[in-house]
Request: fold
Amino acid sequence: MDKKESIGILGVQSGVGVTHLSVAMMEYSLRYRRSATAIVELSGNHEVELLQDHRKRSLHHTGRAQFFPNQSCESPAEWVQASYDTYIVDAGSDYYRSRQEFMRCDKKIILMSLSPWKKREVDDFMSYIYETGKWNKSVTLLAHLGKKEDKKEFQRRYKIPIFCCPYIEDPFHLKEADARFLRTLF
Reply:
């Protein structure tokens, strides 16, 4: 790679799979792109600490991987100084806490559930984004769950495409179908 890139992943609701997708993207970057890759956790959930041990027991790659757990948006010095080709920023589901770093990313992925009991959170989030003018073309919207009708309604209302995020069984051991999907996010 000749240019560093950053990819921010944000969940509209908690538990939609931001860390899971972050790990899958790291594995794709290492294995298929041969890119030195770091995951930076801004969510405050301490999940990346747990992943470090699991990652050490998983497959070894020719590329380098690094985890920066429980980082602060206010003082990103440690990971900003590091030298990786790809930075995947796990912003968790607290947009207000991690929005500055998330908005700085070259590419932005917003992960959500369109389940009937989660749609209100999506509407609140989208209203806030539109009211504050924080929207731009570098954002990809992904939905795990929800009916086709709800997806169509969302796209009509906000005039933004939303893509289906397939189930990735094991983000440390990607299948070919996983890799094909992840390629579209880079």
The domain at 5-185 is CATH 3.40.50.300 (Rossmann fold). The beta strands are 5-11, 37-41, 65-68, 86-90, 107-114, 139-146, 162-164. Residues 17 and 101 are 19 Å apart (CA to CA).
